[in-house]
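Sequence of Thioredoxin family protein (Paenibacillus puldeungensis).
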Amino acid sequence: MTLREISENEWLSRGNNTREALYLFTPMCGTCKLGEKMLEIALASGPCIPVFGLNINYAPTLREAWQISSVPCLVIVQEGQPVQIEYAMRSVVDLYTWLKV
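Predicted 3D structure, token representation.
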């Protein structure tokens, strides 16, 4: 499984009835790039929930609604609502634990 980029409009218009995750980043952020590499390793390690990537510069509605304070940010979503927001991508093991099915 890989990280698929999605726009804010696509995310908001989808029917969200499952558990999934949204990785918020900015393109020029080095820590975001490292977090994305760690996410890709976690996703390749076993069955995980779907994970989407979204450039926070183009996501004002979600940024405000979820009160996102920095990037990188991994938001675990259940039925369209955030249930966990993580700013520290400490390890691949942590990421896999949060994302496993």
